[in-house]
Amino acid sequence: MKNTLLSLNEATRTVNSGSNKVTLLDNINLNVEVGEFISLMGPSGSGKSTLLNCIGMLDHFTDGGYTFLGEPVHSMKEKNRSKLYKEYIGFVFQAYHLIDELTVYENIETPLLYKSVKSSERKAMVADMLDRFNIVGKKDLFPIQLSGGQQQLVGIARALIGKPKLILADEPTGNLNSKQSEEIMELFAQLNKEGVTIIQATHSESNAAYGSRIINLLDGKIV
Amino acid sequence: MIKNNIKLAWRSIRKNRLFSMISLTGLTLGLLACISVVSVVLDDFSYDSQWSRKDDIHRLLTNVDMGNDVSNKMSASWAGLRPALMDNFPEVEAVTNIYTVDRHIKKNIEDTDVIDLKALETDSLIWDLFDFKVISGNPKQFIHGKSNLVLTKTLKDKLFPDEDVIGKIVFSIPSFGSEPTPFLITGIIENIPSNTHLRAEALIIEKGRLEALYKEQYGSFTRNYVLFKTGTDVNKFSEKLNTWYTDFVGGETKYSYEFQPISDTYLNSEFDNEIDIKGNRSTDYILLGVAILVLFIACVNFVNLSVARSLTRIKEVGVRKVIGADRKQIITQFLVESLMYFVIASLIALPTFYLIIPFIEQFIGHALQVSLLSSLEYLSLGFVAVFIVAVITGTYPAFLISGFKPMNSLKGLINKNEIYGQQFIQKGLVVVQFSIAIIVLVSVFIVKSQLDFINNKDLGYDEENLLAINPTSWDGKGESFHKEITNIPGVTSASLANWRPTFGSGGMLKSIDNPNNLGSKMQVWFIAGDVHLPKTLGVKLISGRLFDEKLITDAPQSKPIAFNNEEKKVNTQPSILTEFTANALQVTKMNTTIPELETNPIGIVKSFHTQSLRYDFKPVVIVGESNPDYSSMLIRVKEGTSSEVTAKINKIWKQMFPNKYLAMNWVDDLVEKQYLEEDRLQSFFSFFSMLSLLLSAIGVFGLVAQSTEQRIKEIGVRKVLGASVKSIVVLFSKDYVKLVAIAIVIALPIAWFATSKWLQDFAYRISVEWVVLLLAASIVLVIALTTVVVQSIRAAIRNPIKSLRTE
Ligand SMILES: Nc1ncnc2c1ncn2[C@@H]1O[C@H](COP(=O)(O)OP(=O)(O)O)[C@@H](O)[C@H]1O
Ligand SMILES: [Mg+2]
């Protein structure tokens, strides 16, 4: 039985740039089932990041419908939207976006703090995550003391700690060498097997191949 | 979460050294200033509130109706009111007389050492009013036959360290009266707290006066302190007393009475020229205001720097939002960080305050009985206040930074409007800060100029090299003592007179019809002195003549003026008028009797300032009087002979009055003493203006440091493109010059208004000159500019390649 995670219905994103209206995303129709691993592909500027941000509720569509787990996101109050977001979505960035002032441990722990998870539970969850990603030894280091691949591992661990249903990854390997990229993709495949839905934006055919479905974007349209 | 926030805040404080140093220095100084001033003010407001019966203890004040709607308030009242109050009014529990006096004690009669002490001269009933704690002896039991002396612990330890002194007799050397008075030490009490207008080191307990209240309205005055039964409505009671008194004297009286709560006496005694221990409410408010301004400047620094710095943390906030933080959580984080700064600043300021208490005590001239540290209540109130200030201060930066959209902040894209608003507020705050600095600086200049003006103003007599001996009884030896003094080589002249400079406008007062305004009254003061008085004072003759030594009529032996209207003997004694008096009385011709004053003016002298320049001239008439029983003495000394002369005077005094204390002052010291309050205010202002300037400067320094830091790349690019150091400095300085200019425009009118208002307290005052305003403005401008220029030069001379590479 298929289980829809989210669906976009003629979703459109426009911005006003001076006096003209620029369309960044143009009538996107998309259904994402639970357990899918989707790769978004397309040239630079085609709208991949914009689409991920809108799906991730960091940005919003200006027109069309967006339903997430049966709930109409487009007509939702900001407060409920961020509740939904906090509970179900994790983000991974090309530039990692770790907090420089925090150690590896603290970076991973922070989302739990924002969710007011109890201290003992937090400790266990972070320990699990460190264990799983094999970075226990690095837990007290600061981001600048890590390689890019290690930083991205921390980034993914941080995205996963809240047990999201959906991971949105915007060119997660863009700053990594091919060996590191492969490791990250293996990890994604593994996570996907465990039931996490993943949407990643990527330029790389080989990365895209890890996914179960490829969506091509061009000038804000699915092609 | 909070624990985490605190950890984060601590890291952030440690990471940004420059910012943290500047912010902490500013906040610490601001808090320290506030803690100190608040403590001084708390102490001032705590006076006489420590007595357990404080609500029931009142001082009895007399209002004397001088006619013409003028009334004179005094802290003395008929001695006879004491038995009258105690016998006729059940509301009154006890009445005691208290005078604060200086006494001079010899431990043994043959000693030459004299110990000065401040004591309360009173009677046994004082024990009913005030809870002095007895340490040893049984001083509450009055021992008849002698004055009983009760020492405070400190005084006992100072005078008789390891001695049992109860029952010992010491001797008081009087200033008038010729024999030493034996004092019997009857007890030792805990120190009298310093926050009472009855501050003293000892109690001298006398048998107590037993004077009756006279229907004829004469008698002697004393200071009555009344203890009411708890719950008495004192307002009602004073009405009752006034009605009773009017009835008692037969229906007509110029005296009426009011009761002043004991806790009010310290701050509400402007009318009372006879007590030294009194505070000034408006000075307290000025102090508080200035301290709050300094703290405000420090907070403005903090806000500005936090805002400037938070712009570098926009990305961090974006990330936090992406990983699930909502706005409230971000605001909390930044608020906690701000709070941490205040906590650290408080933790530095409090012990520092503790260390500087001795300096503060030296400044205010007495021990600080109450301070912010003296009760848990005050301390926690203080912390609550700091907390509120911290929250207010931290709120703006926290709201600002938490408001950016996460995606934009991740990309480093910031809405122009948000930035514009922020810069507008930041600039506004800088303007406010500099305005305050300018206002305080102008105040320093004005207070200083006014004090210089007062110190240099020609008083109309020569206050330099002039000695004044306190009023004393001469025991018939006045003339011969005068002769001995005049024979001292360094003495040019000396005079026995019933008035000393700064002690009121004269020795006696008469109310006459005002010739300039028919139907109204005029108060004329009389100074009675011997023929040498005008010369000794150094007043300047304008017309007519001064007293003549050879004319016996110039200074008759008898009392000069008959003040009792009933024995109207016609007496047209010669007198000297001041110019002001001559104008007020419309006197143009000499030797024409003024019947109302029963005097015959023989000369007019230039008006002289009998008291502080706060007050205008008063009508003053100098009349001659030889060989008074009781008077002061003024002694004119040749320049440079002061020490020989004072030594000689002491020697002559010892010979002629061996058992009497010589109390003598230089008149210029007395004159200066009138401006103690202003002197204090001036040192206070100087200190706080330095502080506010310093804080404003480091605030701007921090801002410029932040903005050059943020624009390092821009500076690098500009330099690569060929910009000179000068043009870069101009680029950065321009804005600040504009801000200081605006501050000047705002601050100068306020400063002008405030200082003019302060000056209005003085009958003789400087005017607020433009030069002073401009000087203050230029100083602030120069300081601001120097700060900006130094900082931007530092940025501009950095190697452009280096700064570009760091990006
Ligand atoms: N806030 C915005 N205002 C105007 N144009 C934007 C904005 N955000 C993105 N764009 C434009 O939208 C297009 C799509 O951008 P993006 O989604 O980042 O593409 P991709 O991630 O595929 O490279 C680009 O041309 C970009 O310049
Ligand atoms: Mg992109």
From TrEMBL, chain A:
Coiled coil: none annotated. Signal peptide: none annotated. Pfam families: ABC_tran. Gene3D superfamilies: P-loop containing nucleotide triphosphate hydrolases. Keywords: ATP-binding, Lipoprotein, Nucleotide-binding, Transport. GO terms for cellular component: membrane protein complex; plasma membrane. It comes from the Bacteria. GO terms for molecular function: ATP binding; ATP hydrolysis activity; transmembrane transporter activity. Belongs to the ABC transporter superfamily. Macrolide exporter (TC 3.A.1.122) family. This is ABC-type lipoprotein export system ATPase subunit. It comes from Winogradskyella eximia.
UniProtKB/TrEMBL annotation, chain B:
It is a multi-pass membrane protein. InterPro entries: ABC3_permease_C, MacB_PCD, Macrolide_Exporter_MacB. GO terms for molecular function: transmembrane transporter activity. The keyword Cell inner membrane does not apply. Keywords: Cell membrane, Membrane, Transmembrane, Transmembrane helix. Residues 290-404, 687-800 form the ABC3 transporter permease C-terminal domain. One of its GO terms (cellular component) is plasma membrane. It is found in: Cell membrane. Residues 20-242 form the MacB-like periplasmic core domain. It holds the Pfam family MacB_PCD. The chain crosses the membrane at residues 285-305, 339-360, 380-404, 424-447, 684-705, 736-755, 770-790. It comes from the Bacteria. This is Putative ABC transport system permease protein. It comes from Winogradskyella eximia. The lineage of its organism: Bacteria, Pseudomonadati, Bacteroidota, Flavobacteriia, Flavobacteriales.
